[in-house]
Amino acid sequence: MTEERKTDPASDSSNSSGKEAQGFWGEAAAEALAPEAAPARMRELEAKISAADHAYYVLDDPILSDEEYDRLYHELAALEARFPELVSPASPTHRVSGAVREDLPKVTHAQPMLSIHTETDFTAEGAKAFDERVRKELGLTDEDAPVVYDCELKFDGLAMSMRYEKGVLVLAATRGDGTTGEDVTANVRTIRTIPLKLDGVPDVFEVRGEVIMHRADFHALNERQLKDGKKTFVNPRNAAAGSLRQLDPKVTAARRLHFYAYALGECSAPDFAASQTELLDRFKALGLPVADMRRRVEGPEALAAFHDEVAANRAELPFDIDGVVYKVDDFGLQRELGFLSREPRWACAHKYPPEEAVTVLEAIDVQVGRTGKLTPVARLAPVFVGGVTVSNATLHNESFIAELDLCIGDSVVVRRAGDVIPEVVRVLHERRPEGARRFQMPDHCPVCGSATIRDEEEKDTRCTGGLFCPAQVKLAIVHFASRRAAGIDGLGEKIVTMLVDEGLVSTPADLFHLTHEALTDFITATKGTEKPVRRMGPKAAQNLLDNLERAKSTTFARFIFALGCRHVGEATALTLATHFGTLDALRNATLEELTHVDDVGEIVGESVHAFFKEPHNEEVIGELITAGMHWPAVEKKTTASAVAGKTFVITGTLPTLKRDAAKDMLIAAGAKVAGSVSKKTDFVVAGAEAGSKLEKAEALGVKVIDEAEMLAMLSAPGEATAATEEAAAEEPASETPQEVPAETVKAAEPVKVAETVKPVEKHEPRAPLPEPIQETLF
Ligand SMILES: NC(=O)c1ccc[n+]([C@@H]2O[C@H](COP(=O)([O-])OP(=O)(O)OC[C@H]3O[C@@H](n4cnc5c(N)ncnc54)[C@H](O)[C@@H]3O)[C@@H](O)[C@H]2O)c1
Ligand SMILES: [Zn+2]
To answer: Where does NAD(+) bind (predicted)?
Structure first.
């Protein structure tokens, strides 16, 4: 770091480590500078700071982040301390920065408006340093009582002075350069929380405080600006300044500004208040807005405690603050302490680490989530922001990168507020280096190498190797095993995690190769006791194996649903099963054939097509069939029964059928099955102990039937409706298992898969898959 500074004093963007990261900003750089380089560096810093001041105070459109500005400022101040003979009379450190807009009327302040000293140490040491300085100035020793302070929020807005004469608001002015400000009276009158009249105040009464904009209003304003094709504001502080320093009060009125009072300017009653606390209490009693978050305390520990407490509650405030302010409470002591150039000695700002910082985007990595979503992640040159060193930030998706117009190599503004994950919020396009590269989403999954597919609707890119990709395998197996998919009881997330982490299973097909020995094996416990433990108890293991055996006999629709192909919910699985009839027909279907299936459409069609095209998936599907998964042959079209198109609700315990089975039968016959009774319900099938649903049916006059009547209806012919049409209408387009209907089946007994069937060759696309035997019997 030191070396770097020596050889490249102009490098302003390397700001990552060491002393500076703890809040000592540019001072380290100043210490390291060779004396012969000082004059040039100081002139350079003055020019940079002046240019930044102009952009910030006059144009309300900063060209540096606050963190960069403060670092340059502190470097200059430290150089001035080290080389006093080189200090320029026009140095920006000597004046209250700020300037006035030429087209606004000017006001000379009756009393100058000053800045305040900033503590550069963000820790409790900052509070201690201030207290020590105050005690020293006052000549206090350890024997003396602690100093009493008033602690306040440091509002991040712009300072403003309001003059009341005989209780009437006659003038409002911005701080400007401290001596001369801008007359913004007409604009200030539009701020609703500011009283235009005050009762019982001295004849001349100047109230000073901060004009701010709430974060919510700031975001709304920027949205409006975007919509109207106007320039957006960088932060609420600049938006507040831009809104107050306006030629047209109507614009200010529309911007919803707020004001908080914290100081007294000229006042015709010299004894109006004896302390800062009393002043703020009196302001409040007069109806002036005063922030509640303030405290009168004694000694440096209490200052630091206030600093900490406000930090913890900062995110909940509706507006931005950039620190807290400590003020010696007693006005007598304040007078004694006096001023040092542009700053009172009796106050200091104790800031928080900046929430925004500038750094360089070094690379973009891609992570694959549990659902196969590819997420680009920014690899940043480490930067100290929001109190921690940040080197990664999520970039969400390709559109986010496009909207930011972000290239690898760009300088970016990173924001980290509170516990919120760091974000890239802006690109400094004017700093784009030569050779900056655009990012492209990879066309193959970085984890498993399967092809990726772009989902236009959801604006994201996904790995298509759902059955194979290690990033997705846990969720894929949990879904595969879920009740209305393969229906393997006892395979919840916890067991699946264990099986995958222990290396026993890496695809759903591996489940069928689990053995009792492997499941009940002893493993060394990693946490707590060193005693070896069993993976599973013998009984639980046997249950799982039995359930796996049972799950081999399934239906084609359940099988399709279990594969977990994106956008294929239960209803789509049923549609695909009835439309294609066989696994071979489905996996060989062209994109065109798929998108022409009723209720499938383009997005689902593309997803299914990509899924079956991916050799890795095909391999796993082959293994599932070889392992023995089978289903009865599918009857492609059905004659509708009397229940087709009707809506049923099932309630209570039916005498012979499980509710799930009854539901499957109804759906397969083209009925809808709803969860609650409404006017749209055609029939309620009630069993024993039916409760509120039955009452509701009776109240609404919905026909109530029993299981026998339902079965009779199922076997009675109805109008010619295709069963699938109705069922597919309620597509739950999600990845999570919901209610799945079975497809229309022939009442054939499941037959075992022929043992002679060979598994598909690995990685060989379109090699024939082993067929469940019923289908080859056709
Ligand atoms: N990004 C840029 O290019 C750029 C340029 C110039 C200045 N800045 C920022 O502005 C800062 C300097 O601005 P400054 O001179 O106004 O100093 P400051 O904002 O750090 O502190 C002084 C100001 O604090 C405000 N304040 C808020 N709450 C207060 C309270 N309770 N009591 C008293 N005062 C309170 C007042 O407006 C006062 O003028 C820099 O540290 C930098 O962060 C940034
Ligand atoms: Zn993958």
So the answer is: 66-70, 115-116, 152, 175, 210, 327, 351
